[in-house]
Fold:
Amino acid sequence: MPAMPGVHAGDGQQIVTAEQFQPRVSKLLASKGGKVLEAPFALTVYLCPSCFAVQHALSKAAG
Ligand SMILES: [Zn+2]
Structure:
């Protein structure tokens, strides 16, 4: 079965916008603005083809 052209099977990218992401504000970091992560950012999504476990990782291309 041929792979989809240009797409590596089992992984992809998801863009998370400010509307989709509510950052947790840390009291310890309040002096620095409190936000560890701020939208929008990109996630790389990996899907394991054998057990269908999904993993997310922050994309280095973001911000
Ligand atoms: Zn697996």
User: Anything to note?
Assistant: Residues 48, 50-51, 53 surround zinc ion (CB under 6 Å). The two ends are 36 Å apart (CA to CA). DSSP finds no helices and three strands in the chain.
